[in-house]
Design goal:
Blueprint: H1 2-19, E1 23-34, H2 35-40, E2 41-54, E3 59-72, E4 74-81, E5 84-91, E6 95-107, E7 114-134, E8 141-161, E9 165-177, E10 183-196
Antiparallel strand pairs: 1-2, 1-10, 2-3, 3-6, 4-5, 6-7, 7-8, 8-9, 9-10
Length: 197
C-alpha cells in the first residue's frame, strides 16, 4: 500500500510539473578566463542547451548541457638552453569544456519574466594531456590524454527580455587537482544569450 501511495504521489507531482510552462532553450556562450586560466587561454565561445521547470511564482529549476572552446595563447616558460637558464615562448592548446549543470533561478517579478538571481552546480568535463614521464638525458616529455570531470559552481544574474530572450552573466568556478595533486580553482566569466521555446 505504501508503494502504491508513493507511486501515486510521484505521478501527481510529475504531472504537475509537466502541466507547468516548462521551457527549453538554445544559447550562445562566451567566456572570459580569469586568473591562471587567463594566462594560458584567450576568450571562449560555444553553445548550451537548457531546460527550465517553474516550481512556484518566482522560482524555476534549470538544467544546462553544452560545449565551450577556449583558444590557447602564447606564454613564457622557464627553459635551459646550452646550460643557461632562460625563458621560452610556447602556445597553449585550445581547451574544450563540456559543462553539465543544474540549479535554480529566483525571479524578482514573475516566473520567466524580468530580472533574476540564480546558481548552477554540476560538472565541467575536459580532455587533458597529462605528463607521464620525462627523459632526463634528452629532456623529452611523454604525455597521455585523459578525460577529467571536475565539480563546478556558478552564481549568476540574468534578465528575460520579452517572452523568449534570456541573457545571463555568471562567475564560473571549476574545482580540480593540479600535477602535484593540490586543489586548484579554474574560473571564467560566462555570458549566455539564449532563445527560449
Amino acid at each position: 500500500m505504501k508503494k502504491i501511495l508513493i507511486t501515486f504521489a510521484a505521478a501527481v507531482f510529475a504531472g504537475g510539473l509537466i502541466a507547468q510552462e516548462n521551457r527549453a532553450s538554445v544559447g550562445l556562450e562566451f567566456g572570459l578566463p580569469m586568473g591562471d586560466f587567463g594566462d594560458v587561454s584567450a576568450f571562449g565561445i560555444g553553445g548550451t542547451l537548457g531546460y527550465e521547470i517553474p516550481v512556484s511564482d518566482n522560482l524555476g529549476l534549470i538544467a544546462q548541457l553544452g560545449y565551450i572552446s577556449f583558444l590557447g595563447k602564447e606564454y613564457e616558460v622557464p627553459a635551459v638552453v646550452n646550460g643557461v637558464l632562460t625563458t621560452e615562448t610556447v602556445r597553449a592548446d585550445a581547451a574544450g569544456l563540456i559543462p553539465l549543470q543544474v540549479g535554480g533561478k529566483y525571479y524578482f517579478t514573475d516566473n520567466q519574466e524580468g530580472a533574476y538571481l540564480g546558481a548552477l552546480v554540476g560538472l565541467h568535463m575536459q580532455s587533458v594531456e597529462e605528463v607521464t614521464g620525462i627523459d632526463l638525458t634528452t629532456g623529452a616529455i611523454t604525455t597521455e590524454k585523459k578525460f577529467k570531470s571536475n565539480l563546478s559552481l556558478a552564481p549568476m544574474l540574468g534578465f528575460v527580455l520579452g517572452e523568449n530572450i534570456d541573457l545571463a552573466l555568471r562567475y564560473q568556478m571549476i574545482f580540480g587537482k593540479d600535477a602535484l595533486d593540490e586543489t586548484v580553482t579554474t574560473s571564467y566569466i560566462g555570458v549566455r544569450a539564449a532563445y527560449m521555446f
